[in-house]
Amino acid sequence: MDPALAALGEFGLIGVIRRRVQQRSPGTILGIGDDAAILAPVPEGALLATTDMMLEGVHFQRRWGRPGDLGRKALAVNLSDIAAMGGSPRYALLGLAIPPEGVTLEELEALLAGMEEEAANSGVTLVGGDTCASRSGLVLAVTLLGTLPAGRALLRSGAKPGDALWVTGTLGGAAAGLLALELGLRPGAAWPPAVLRPAWLGGEEEAAIRAAMTAHLTPVPRLAAGRALVGCATAGIDVSDGVASDVGHLCAESRIAARILARQVPIHPGALAMARLLDRKALDLALRGGEDYELLFTAAVDPRPILADAAPDLPVTRIGEMHAGEPIARLVHADGDEVTLTGGFDHLRGAA
Ligand code: ADP
Ligand code: MG
C-alpha cells in the first residue's frame, strides 16, 4: 500500500473525500460523516435510482488514462442512465475498493477531483459511500439518485409502430478508442513507433482516432437532451452495450419490431479510421461496440427543433423506424440486403 495512504488509513481518506466535496443540492440535510446521509423528500415527485460499477481489468486499465478521467467516467456512466430516463441527477454515493499495490494517495485525489468536476457540471452532490481494500484491482461503484416529475419518465416500453428511431451524436467512437488504447496509443502521447502507421493515415485520421480515445475515456452524458425529450420521445435508452443490443431492449420492452438503415448510421470518424487500420467493419464498431453513451430513442414527431434548443451542438440522426411485428431489430444494408441485428456486449457471455 502507498505509504501516504497507509498513514491516512480508511477514516483519514474518508476525511480527505469529505473535505473535497461541495454541497450542490439544497435537499442534502446531512452528507458524508454519519452512518447514512439524510435527504429531503423531492418536490419534483419521483426519485430515480441507478448504479454502475467500474472494475479495473474489466472496464478499464489504469495505464490507459489519467485518474481524473476515471473519476469522471465512473460518475458519467451513471449520469447517462438518469439522462436516458429524462431525469435530473442529484445525489451520488461512491463505493471505492483500493488495491494493495500501485494506487497512490495522489492518484486517488486526482480521481476524486475528476469526479467532483463531473458532479459540478451536472449539479450532483456526493453524499456518501464506502471505502475498503480490494484483493485485485481498483473498483469504483457509483450509485446515483435523480429526480423526475412523477409519471414523466422516458421508458423503454413506450415505442409505437410508425415511430421513427433516432440517435444522438455518433456511434463507434468509444469502441474505436478502446481498440486504439489496446494497440498502445495514448491520448497525450505521440504515435508510438511500435504501431505500424500506413501512408493513408494523415493528420485528420490521427485526430479522429484521438477523439475516439477521448470518447472512450470521458463520455459525455446527454442530460440536457434527455430532459428535453420528455414529452417528445415515446421511448428511450442510453447506448451502453451497443445499439445492436440496446435497440433489442427497446423492441422487447415495447413489444414491436425495429428496422435500422445501415447507410443512415452516424459513424464516428475515429471508428472509420480504426476500422481501416485494423481491417474491420466500421459499421460493426458503430452498432456493436458499446460505451458511446448516446441516447437512442423513438418519436412520432420530429425531435430536431426541441433538441436544437436544448442541446444545440449535439447532432441527432434518424436511423430507422419501429413497426408492428416480432420484437427484434433488422438491419437493412444499402444494397437492400436485410439481416437480423444481433450482438453487442453481454458481461456474462462476452462480445457477440
Ligand atoms: P459505516 O461503517 O457506518 O458504514 P463508514 O465508516 O463506512 O461508515 O463511512 C463513514 C462515512 O463516510 C459515511 O457517511 C459514508 O457514507 C462516508 N463514506 C465512506 N466511504 C466513502 C466514499 N468512498 N465516498 C464518499 N463517502 C464515503
Ligand atoms: Mg460503510
What does this structure look like?
With 352 residues, the protein is α+β, with helices and mostly antiparallel strands. It contains ten helices and 15 strands. It has helices at 3-20, 67-85, 105-122, 173-183, 203-217, 223-229, 243-254, 269-278, 282-288, 304-310, and strands at 28-30, 38-39, 45-55, 88-98, 125-133, 139-149, 164-168, 233-238, 257-261, 295-299, 316-323, 329-332, 338-340, 345-346, 350-351. The strands form four sheets. It has a seven-stranded mixed sheet with strand order 8-10-7-11-9-12-13. Strands 3-6-4-5 form a four-stranded mixed sheet, with helices on one face. The chain has a two-stranded antiparallel sheet with strand order 1-2. Helix 4 (173-183) crosses helix 8 (269-278). The longest helix has 19 residues, at 67-85. The radius of gyration is 21 Å and the shape is globular. It starts with a helix and ends with a strand. Bound molecules: adenosine-5'-diphosphate and magnesium ion.
